[in-house]
Amino acid sequence: MEEHADSDLGNIRVICRFRPLNEKEKEISMQTCIDFSSDCKTVTVQSHTENAEPLKFNFDHVFDPSSSQSSVYEISAKPIVEAVTQGFNGTIFAYGQTSSGKTFTMSGSDVSDPEMMGIIPRMVSTVFESIGNSEDYLEFQVKVSYCEIYMEKIKDLLEPNKNNLKIHEDRIRGIYISGLSEKYVNDDQEVYDLMSLGLENREVGYTHMNAGSSRSHSIFIITIAQSNTKVLSTKVGKLYLVDLAGSEKVGKTGAEGKRLEEAKNINKSLTTLGQVISALTDGKSTHVPYRDSKLTRVLQDSLGGNSKTTLIVTCSPSPYNESETISTLRFGIRAKAIKNKPKVNREYTVGELKILLSKAREEITEKNKRISELEINLQQSGHQIPDNLLPFGLNIEGDSSLLNLSKMSEYDEIFHELEDIRSRLSEEVQTNHSLSQDLSQTQVDLESLKSVSDYMVKELEKANNLTKTLKSDIKEKEEKIFTLIDTNEKLTKKNKGLAEKEFELKQEILAKEYEIDQLKEEIKKLQNGAIEKVIEKRIKTGWEDPDLEEGLVESTCSSEDKIKSLLSLDEDEIQRSATVSVLRSWELWNNEKKSFVAEIQNRTNSIISLNSQLDESKKKCKELEVALNQDERQMRIENKFIQHSLCELTKKFHRVAAKKSKYKIENEANEKKIKRLNDRCAELENKAHRYREKLKAYKFSIHQFNKQAELSRATISHIGAVSYSNIRKTIVGGSLSKRNEF
């Protein structure tokens, strides 16, 4: 089964784009249900429904999942943008189920990334490149608007406090959103900034299909006014860039509560869009339900009206979304059958009206001269003009209306243009009054913000001074800490030396004790040796002499006592001397150790105290720096916003003041011209009636003179032919030729 769309130049162009599989679809199946043809115009859906045959759809172009952002823009959007710079209206809108890639196609994931930016930022670059490459006698004015339709209410995304805006229509502006802000821009960066601001204010929300699902239809409008200073012509082109919210199946998105209400409104507006397309294409409907939703009302000119329109349908290649994909493709096929009637939006300026009026006067003067020549020729040929007919040459300016009746429609057009100018002037006066009030309020707000800014600057200076003081205190405490750490290291080294000295003293005491033990052993040996000698001598001499034995015993005892006394005295003296020396050294070391320990403890306590003070100071300093940075950042943001607002309001004020002065002068001149033209019109109508009667008399006279003056008739015929030929040349070679040239 195959469905296709015609490629008529007046029809909406339909582009189809498929995104790659997302993670959820890959978990379900890595297979796709889509086949792409080599001509990039046909897509085939391999339906997984039982006994279902493949479905083929033909579009102006089909992009597969590997297509780049730049290729999508070059084929689908760039021709529309170029047409807008020539004065046409253009519309590009994306349609598809939720999470099918509409926002990625229209805006991209990053407006600053040349690879990932979408249609809108690329379009902005193209517009300003086109302006830069244009002739120097062309002047442009570019202004942008950004709004969203959320829950059937229109909200200004550039000024979020404006919500529930109304849609109006008039003969001059067509369909427009009343109260929607328009920002004049000079370069693409200003447009990007406004886009970022609008995207931040847009309604998005989480669903099971998309974590950042768009919950509203967004409309980005860029208006390009082109003025030709050579011919004083003006062309105005409007470009609508529409990112529609995706159609949703509640079972898949898991919408509930607020999300469910949003889904109902989204699906309702998209259903109305489908009904409008069906009514435009079925050939039977006598009523198109544009007014059934805000979306279709805003897009009325884009669907069957004065606009060149491209529809981008975005789809998923996964079998999981097969039914939604088929529905989207069929929507695109139906939309392709809509026939639009685009035309250049050309406006007559006051300068152009002056030129047209001047040319009309020149033509009238030329015709008056020809009529005067005809009258003279009639008189010279012997024919008398009836008395009831005044000579044409007597009132050249008034009599010119006879041959200028064909120009009355042109005068009517001029009158309409003057009326339009008058109404626009009235609107400009009202706008000027409103802007003056806004400017006064802004100046009051600015003064208030300046006082707040001055206060914040003073607070900032105080915080800076306090920060400097804290930093100085911290530096001093850090120096003290470094000094204490150095002293602590020295004391630690000294303590280590004392410990080593203590160890040496202990070793020396052990050595002395060992030496004493050795001396004791040696004394015992000496005692035992002396006794043995006495006993041995006694044995040799015998034990016969008792006196000798007694004296020997006494002598031995006495010697033994003396030896013991000497040994005892020597041992006590040695022990006492060693003990005194050791105790004195130990006491000295212990005192020094206690002194060092106390000093180390004091310094350690000082270090701990200083460290806690340092940590507290650092914490305070950090808090002050954070507060200071936040205040600076907030103040910079507020100052930037104030400067931007003041600059914009100043520009608006100057523009409005200039327009007011210009329109005031032009209005006075136009009022005088209108009065003169009205008087002239009434006079021409009266004279036209009289000259119709004169024509009847002339025809009768010429019929009578025909028989008597063949030469005069030939002359009159020749002159009339020459006059007609000249008039035709003047009309073809005048303003129309210049209009065709441009």
UniProtKB/TrEMBL annotation:
<feature type="coiled-coil region">
    <location>
        <begin position="660"/>
        <end position="701"/>
    </location>
</feature>
<dbReference type="GO" id="GO:0008017">
    <property type="term" value="F:microtubule binding"/>
</dbReference>
<keyword id="KW-0175">Coiled coil</keyword>
<dbReference type="GO" id="GO:0007018">
    <property type="term" value="P:microtubule-based movement"/>
</dbReference>
<protein>
    <recommendedName>
        <fullName>Kinesin-like protein</fullName>
    </recommendedName>
</protein>
<dbReference type="GO" id="GO:0005524">
    <property type="term" value="F:ATP binding"/>
</dbReference>
<dbReference type="InterPro" id="IPR036961">
    <property type="entry name" value="Kinesin_motor_dom_sf"/>
</dbReference>
<keyword id="KW-0493">Microtubule</keyword>
<feature type="coiled-coil region">
    <location>
        <begin position="460"/>
        <end position="536"/>
    </location>
</feature>
<dbReference type="InterPro" id="IPR019821">
    <property type="entry name" value="Kinesin_motor_CS"/>
</dbReference>
<keyword id="KW-0547">Nucleotide-binding</keyword>
<feature type="domain" description="Kinesin motor">
    <location>
        <begin position="11"/>
        <end position="338"/>
    </location>
</feature>
<dbReference type="InterPro" id="IPR027640">
    <property type="entry name" value="Kinesin-like_fam"/>
</dbReference>
<feature type="binding site">
    <location>
        <begin position="96"/>
        <end position="103"/>
    </location>
    <ligand>
        <name>ATP</name>
    </ligand>
</feature>
<dbReference type="InterPro" id="IPR001752">
    <property type="entry name" value="Kinesin_motor_dom"/>
</dbReference>
<dbReference type="Pfam" id="PF00225">
    <property type="entry name" value="Kinesin"/>
</dbReference>
<keyword id="KW-0505">Motor protein</keyword>
<feature type="coiled-coil region">
    <location>
        <begin position="607"/>
        <end position="634"/>
    </location>
</feature>
<feature type="coiled-coil region">
    <location>
        <begin position="350"/>
        <end position="377"/>
    </location>
</feature>
<keyword id="KW-0067">ATP-binding</keyword>
<comment type="similarity">
    <text>Belongs to the TRAFAC class myosin-kinesin ATPase superfamily. Kinesin family.</text>
</comment>
<dbReference type="InterPro" id="IPR027417">
    <property type="entry name" value="P-loop_NTPase"/>
</dbReference>
<dbReference type="GO" id="GO:0003777">
    <property type="term" value="F:microtubule motor activity"/>
</dbReference>
<dbReference type="GO" id="GO:0005874">
    <property type="term" value="C:microtubule"/>
</dbReference>
